[in-house]
Amino acid sequence: MSNRRKVENDDSLKQSGGSKQQRFVYQDDEVMEKPFDWGQMRRLGKYMMPYRKQMLPIIIITILLVTLTKLAIPLFITYAIDHALMEKNGKLLLIIIASMAAVYIIQCLASNYRIRYTSMIGQRVIHDLRHDLFSHIQSLSFRFFDKRPAGSVLVRVTNDINSLQDLFTNGVVNVLIDCIQLLGIVIILLMFNVKLGLAIMITVPLMFLVSTSLRKKIRRGWQDVRMKQSRINSHLNESIQGIKVTQAFTQEKENMQYFNEMNDVNRKSWDRASRLNQTFGPLIEITGAIGYCILFWYGATLVAAGDISIGVLVGFATYIGHFWEPINRLGQMYSQLLIAMASSERIFEFMDEQPTVQEKRKARTLPPIQGNIRLENIVFEYEPNRPALKGISLEVQSGQSIALVGHTGSGKSTIINLLCRFYDPVEGRVMIDGHDIRDVTVQSLRSQIGIVLQDTFIFSGTIRDNIRFGRLDATDEEVELAAKAVHAHDFIINLPNGYDTEVQERGSMLSMGQRQLLSFARALLADPRILILDEATASIDTETELKIQEAMKTLLAGRTSFIIAHRLSTIRHADNIVVLDHGRIMETGNHDELMKKQGIYHGLIQAQYKFLNEAVG
Ligand SMILES: Nc1ncnc2c1ncn2[C@@H]1O[C@H](COP(=O)(O)OP(=O)(O)OP(=O)(O)O)[C@@H](O)[C@H]1O
Predict the structure, then answer these.
(1) Residues of the chain whose pLDDT is less than 50?
(2) Signal peptide location in the record (predicted)?
(3) Distance (Å, rounded) from C-alpha 184 to C-alpha 65?
(4) Segments forming the whole domain that contains residue 203
(5) Does the Cβ of 414 fall within 6 Å of ligand 1?
(6) Domain identity same for 217 and 186
(7) Structural domains of the chain, count
(8) Looking at residue 508, what is its pLDDT?
(9) The pLDDT of residue 150
(10) Going by C-beta distance under 8 Å and a sequence separation of 6 or more, which residues neighbour residue 552?
């Protein structure tokens, strides 16, 4: 923790800030904007295509109505002054006022529909994009998740998609409206009077300069704030997840100090951005005021010379009021667009990621299996030139129970990963009932394999939902039968709402043992031909373990099973014990055969008894 010192210096944070995960999230968030990219815009635009026939005509009509009515109002004013007021024509004035009211009503209705339909399209586009991203992420292989911490994946599905939301719900349409409005105003002003029109437009480059240069600084300022906030969030996330370790090692003070430093940096960054922001309004107003000064000074001269009427002068003044607004908004929109570019690039980067475990185009459905497994000379590496398995060959008959034993890091879980095709071997192949598992669909393979992991994942929902995860069409009776078979029923009915008790996120209200019992019930319900128990009994107390052993007999009966257990007592009855070391099979045989051999397995058993005796003694 002491290396987390200089928070003020961003680079030091990049180099030393906390865990790998934190560092990754920071880097991921740091690219806040990207140059405009047509290719990316086209890709985003494709998401609007499905709605073009349904909604685009309404949007185009309402856009035209809104802009035309906006442009028409000052024309009415000009006409009213020059003709109704100057000529003291009360009837004409009334007609003009009534027409203006009608135009306002049309504008109001059109605007209402425009907003409703654009936000509807926007929401649908975002919905589809989020759907595609999530479904793609779900299809990606373990290798993808090995490289990316959950936090960074989460940021893309939430923050990056959200930052596109404004672009789709308002941005694109506002740009259109602003461009048409600007063009319309320029044409009308020039038609009124070319000289006065051009004189006023002298201020446009000035306004544009102020708007873009200052906006750039402001944008950077707020980006900095977001970056600092993202770091705080990252740190908070890590701190809350690791709160037990922090408290156990009494590191709260250190942690607080680090948090305070980050918090201060964030406040200073906010102050800077906010100060810049406050200068924007007055500067724009000054530039606008220069435009008005030119208008009234030069306009008055033209009125005096009889070149324009008073009505035209007032009309000019009204149009100028509408002139700065779209220029200003276009500048704002541009910043939004650059941020959206960065977000869409990150989203498409994930979408372009191909699963490393690919299904063949003509992959067959694996028929209901017997459970005969053959591993043929398997070589596998997670990272290049660091083999985790170095030529594993193994034959397993249907219904046999196989125990995988060996020191930590010897390759036990890796064998399971390959069996379920979470990864593909670099060399060799995995055969189930004579089918190479790369030739069959992933779904038909995995649906016939059940897994119980030590760190059982409990989803939010009820206990019943969690067991039913094994087979979604199981009846309530089947869920309860499965729970009874693995001795989970007793603890479940003692929960406040029995099977309908809501488990909190990741089942934090349940003990480790209870979570494992649930996952046993889940696996039993799925009724797979091949069952994998990865250190499944490590965190169950001895009494529960005895019950579980009994239930396991039912669970394993007639199935091919792989058991990884560090507690060697639990695998004593396995048909075949496979002893691994550094990615190689060193010994195979049943308990008695391996004990007689007095090799590695014998050594492991001796070591475990010695450890237990010393612990008891
Ligand atoms: N996702 C991964 N990325 C890179 N290397 C990995 C990954 N998973 C495992 N390894 C490495 O592969 C080797 C075998 O790991 P494996 O998880 O199969 O061991 P294990 O026998 O199951 O260990 P344990 O009993 O501790 O669970 C180890 O050296 C490990 O560091």
Answers:
(1) 1-29
(2) none
(3) 13
(4) 194-307
(5) yes
(6) no
(7) 2
(8) 65
(9) 67
(10) 520, 533
